[in-house]
Amino acid sequence: MATRYAVGNWKMNTDLAGAVTLATELSVALREHPPADEVMVGVAPPFCFLAPVKEVLQGSSIELIAQDCHPEAKGAFTGAVSAPMLASLGVQRVIVGHSERRAVFGDDDATVRRKLEAALGAGMRVILCCGETLAQREAGQAEEVVGAQLKAGLEGLSADQLAQVIVAYEPVWAIGTGVTATPEQAGAMHTALREQVLPDLCNGDAPAVLYGGSVKPANIDALAKTAHVGGVLVGGASLEASSFARIVQGCAG
Ligand code: 13P
Description:
This protein is an alpha/beta fold and 253 residues long. It has one domain: Aldolase class I (TIM Barrel). Helix content is 44%, strand content 15%. The chain has 11 helices and 8 strands. An 8-stranded parallel β-barrel has the order 1-2-3-4-5-6-7-8, surrounded by 6 helices. It is globular, with a radius of gyration of 17 Å. It starts with a strand and ends with a helix. 46% of the residues are buried. 1,3-dihydroxyacetonephosphate (13P) is lined by residues 9, 98, 170, 175-176, 212-215, 233-237.
């Protein structure tokens, strides 16, 4: 059975004690109720809490994920964190192209591509995010926008590189709004991505596509059953161990 993914993106939340508590509660919850074999669980704490969260996760199968990386390996980039730095901390995967990075920090497609290559080059795996705004959806451009983001991110990667990448479709209008894409909306986009856009870009072997945007315990069962949804990328509901643990359970195929 194909791997399914349940990833918690903590964004700019928690403090040191809160991050350690959240990671501890999650690992206890998953020890008591282990995820199905095919489900890969990961958490993406803020940079400054990666090391203490890693300590807590030692011995568990929960992946340590970073929310971003800088495209350059080192140098005069005050405040930035590079891919080799993250790899040296034991980070296994990096999120690139999140819509908040694109909208708030000005990450364009070219920057996202450089970050993706930096993360792969440092030996980590990648979650490449894509998604349209409400205005783009209402203008009937959703598939075109998402297709262009994925083309910029993936075109020309080798089969070995592609094997290290998964995609997260996160419609911007569904992030942090409480509005989830309906199973029909998510299903239509995931089907288009998995059956057309990605096979064209990836020589037939399409990466998994996660859904993100107001995923909650109340909607995980419907989302997990939706065609071509290979898992979920969860923001707000990953900040409470019991909600995220419930989402992990619901993620099984
Ligand atoms: P919410 O689950 O809070 O809508 O956030 C989704 C997201 O952006 C995950 O990366």
